[in-house]
Structures are given as structure tokens and as C-alpha cells.
Design goal:
By secondary structure, this protein is of the alpha+beta class. It is 17% helix and 41% strand. The protein is globular, with a radius of gyration of 11 Å. The N and C termini lie close together (12 Å).
Length: 78
């Protein structure tokens, strides 16, 4: 099973790439599918691609629910 996880953009890179962070884990992903991202935005990441921008409050609620359900989000950053 693969999950689409909310992650926070911590750096924008050339060529449609960005670094995201979740639970201390950083990963470079493609942001080609999402326009006008800025550092600090939350995106939904699935298999290395940002699919959409997510409201920060909604992202935090989703991550809190995942933690409550016992899902270790640190190991599933896309």
C-alpha cells in the first residue's frame, strides 16, 4: 500500500524539484504538477510527486490523525 502524505516544502530547486520534510526526513520530489509553490507550503506527495497544495491547518490535522492512528509518518515521506 502507498499513501499520499502531506509534507512541508523546505526548499525549491531548479528543474521543477523541491525538498520536502516530514518528521525529520527530507526528500527531493518533483513539483511539476503544482504551480506557484513557496517555501513553507504543504503539498500532498505520492511516489515522489507533489500532487496538490494543501491548506496548512488541514495538513496539520491530517498528520495529527495519522499519528493518533499509529502511522509513523517519518518513514513514509512519499
Amino acid at each position: 500500500m502507498c499513501l499520499a502524505i502531506p509534507t512541508r516544502v523546505i526548499a525549491l530547486l531548479p528543474d521543477g524539484q523541491a525538498v520536502v520534510e516530514l518528521g525529520g526526513v527530507r526528500k527531493t520530489i518533483s513539483v511539476e504538477l503544482v504551480d506557484d509553490l513557496t517555501v513553507g507550503d504543504y503539498v500532498i506527495v505520492h511516489v515522489g510527486y507533489a500532487l496538490t497544495r494543501l491548506d496548512p491547518e488541514e495538513a496539520e490535522q491530517t498528520l495529527a490523525l495519522m499519528r493518533e492512528a499509529g502511522i509513523d509518518t517519518a518513514g513514509v515521506a512519499g
